[in-house]
Amino acid sequence: MSDIETKHLLFCSVLLLPVLAGAATQESVHAPADAAALTLACSGCHGTQTGVSGLPRLDGMEAPVFIQRMIDFKSGKRVSSIMNRIARGYDESELQKMADYLSRQAPVSP
């Protein structure tokens, strides 16, 4: 792993800590969540304002493209330093909610 990949992994991990800590305190891991809440963890690395350079922006991404990429991460067909593990945390209905929400967001130029 290169120094840049290590820095990206560390940056994303630090951003995810509060989200993961909040999820651990919920009564149920499968409690219903709205789409904006589901995509909150994505914004640290893929956000329009604070995204890591070189990572794809998710706002405005077509829903089928988002879903296929996440399925490929879950299955291991698409390899990443962290996305394979993150993708496994979402079920099909959550991925669909996220995809629909993100596809309706206006893309912002970097």
From TrEMBL:
It comes from Candidatus Methylospira mobilis. This is Cytochrome C. The keyword Transcription regulation does not apply. GO terms for molecular function: electron transfer activity; heme binding; metal ion binding. Residues 1-23 form the signal peptide. Coiled coil: none annotated. Gene3D superfamilies: Cytochrome c-like domain. Keywords: Heme, Iron, Metal-binding, Signal. InterPro entries: Cyt_c-like_dom, Cyt_c-like_dom_sf. Residues 17-106 form the Cytochrome c domain.
